[in-house]
Design brief:
two-stranded antiparallel sheet; 4 helices; alpha+beta; elongated; Elongation Factor Tu (Ef-tu), domain 3; 211 residues
Length: 211
């Protein structure tokens, strides 16, 4: 005997506390969803090698794309009463200056993020023009629950230091830290490096924060 079908829903945290007290249920489960993830690499040409070496620089934020179907024809009510609940998730909360944090939940699948984009397509109407059928293309941008000030401070300390690896050069370290190789002098000046070509492996360098 098959178990009862579980409806997908969107849990909403509007106050930034991670409580997700609000719940928006979809009328029909989606037929599919798509999760995209990618990394960014810096491709560096190395003397004596035939192909560039890829160096990890950062990971892109994951995105969830899903089409949600709404149909209120039999009830004869405006379908926007339901679609506007999803559209409203893009509104910025004035108290915390951010859009509400959302959690898309369908059985064991969960995705936490903010609603980045909503595409509305209305496909059926009553005689007077009231829309009663719609498909929303919703894109969630992945994020995590807000970190504490201590967590943020610890992360900054971690970014503020780099260990020299074999073959490292200052412009590569600047690219890893600032995504800008031209800022290598910031690291050189902070560590009193006169000759940037003479870097000792395993040396820990201070990387000043650039604001």
């Amino acid at each position: 005997m098959m178990g009862q079908e579980k409806k997908a829903k969107i849990l909403v945290d509007r106050n930034g506390q991670g409580d997700f007290k609000e719940s928006i249920s979809v009328l029909f489960n989606p037929s599919e969803y798509k999760v995209d993830a990618s990394n960014n690499y810096s491709w560096q040409k190395i003397l004596g090698q035939s192909v560039p070496v890829g160096m990890f620089t950062s990971g892109d934020i994951e995105t969830l794309s899903v089409d949600l179907f709404f149909d209120t024809y039999e009830a004869g009510v405006d379908v926007r009463a339901f679609t506007n609940q999803v559209l409203g998730l893009m509104a910025v909360e004035k108290k915390i200056s951010t859009p509400p944090l959302c959690k898309f939940v369908w059985d064991s699948f969960q995705f936490t993020g903010v609603v980045e984009k909503v595409s509305q397509r209305f496909t059926m109407f009553l005689d007077q023009g009231t829309p009663v059928r719609a498909t929303l293309g919703v894109t969630f941008k992945g994020t995590s629950v807000k970190k504490s000030a201590d967590d943020i401070g610890a992360a900054r300390e971690k970014v503020a230091q780099q260990t020299v690896n074999q073959g490292d050069q200052l412009h590569l370290m600047a690219y890893r830290s600032y995504n800008d190789a031209s800022k290598w002098r910031n690291i050189a000046n902070a560590n009193q490096i006169d000759n940037p070509r003479l870097l000792k492996p395993a040396t820990t360098l201070h990387v000043p924060l650039v604001r």
